[in-house]
Design brief:
Cytochrome Bc1 Complex, Chain D, domain 2; SH3 type barrels; about 270 residues; alpha+beta; flat; 5-stranded antiparallel β-sheet
Length: about 270
């Protein structure tokens, strides 16, 4: 009987956070060496001014008048969705459907031009708070060739990912800092489990609970099923992110920088 892969430990989470913090620290350090003079704020464009008004009437109650968040909704100036948006291409579908289960209403009546204006306003606000800080491209201090070698070699990334498949054009859609976060701490994915009963019957689904006594899952029909482990032949758990979790304590600074330098070439 296979054992359940350990869920990510606090130690591994610490390594992930340290990796991100070290990357961000490079930017701050470089910025600290830059000239201290701060240019006057850039006036909003006409589109951003229009977007400010639309945002104020539709979004500010939850996200705040300056898009910095409230107790009801998050700071949009730190949102990966906003960072990756280009002229409303990401915001448009998101605003149209909303996230009702998370309390985010849909705005299906917003015209594409209005979404573009909101996007212009949010990006103007991001630029406003960033001031003279260096762009995220300052993170690109690694060697792309070494990153490719790591991707295909020691990191074993190519066993699950492909530059011409799931990662095709990823650099055109994702900025360097968000890209670093994606491979250090990728979004959670459901853990899958297959239970083999003494009769030989197999039951598979999304893992809901597991300890030394009980395994519970939700099967393909949406039914919640529980099995005493002493009445099963085997329990096989598959964590789709296990490879990323195992890499967390193994990455060196050079690995992270080289891998990022390679990934940003995938445009």
């Amino acid at each position: 009987m296979k054992k359940q892969p350990e869920l990510i430990t606090s130690r591994k989470l610490l390594f992930a956070c340290l990796g991100i913090c070290m990357t961000a620290a490079l930017i701050r350090s470089a910025a600290a060496q830059a000239p201290a003079a701060t240019p006057p704020p850039t006036p909003y464009s006409a589109a951003a001014e229009q977007g400010k008004g639309i945002f104020s009437s539709s979004c500010s109650f939850c996200h705040g008048s300056q898009a910095t968040g409230t107790e009801q909704a998050p700071n949009l100036l730190r949102s990966p969705l906003v960072f990756q948006d280009h002229n409303g291409d990401s915001l448009g579908p998101f605003l149209k459907d909303g996230r009702p289960t998370l309390g985010m209403p849909a705005f299906p009546t917003l015209a594409p031009e209005q979404v573009q204006d909101i996007s212009a306003f949010l990006h103007a606000r991001i630029q406003e708070i960033r001031g003279t800080r260096l762009p995220e491209t300052a993170m690109l201090v690694g060697d792309p060739k070494a990153g490719l070698a790591y991707f295909n070699g020691a990191g074993k990334c190519s066993t699950c990912h492909s530059a011409t498949g799931d990662l095709a054009h990823i650099a055109a859609k994702t900025q360097p800092l968000a890209l670093t976060t994606l491979f250090l701490t990728p979004p959670a994915k459901p853990i899958q489990v297959t239970v083999v009963l003494p009769s030989g019957q197999t039951v598979s689904g999304q893992l809901e609970y597991l300890d030394e006594f009980t395994v519970a899952l939700v099967d393909a029909d949406g039914a919640y099923r529980t099995f005493p482990r002493d009445r099963t032949k085997s329990v096989d758990v598959v964590d789709p992110l296990i490879a990323h979790k195992k890499l967390l304590p193994m990455y060196t600074d050079k690995d992270i920088h080289d891998l990022l330098a390679y990934l940003v070439t995938l445009k």
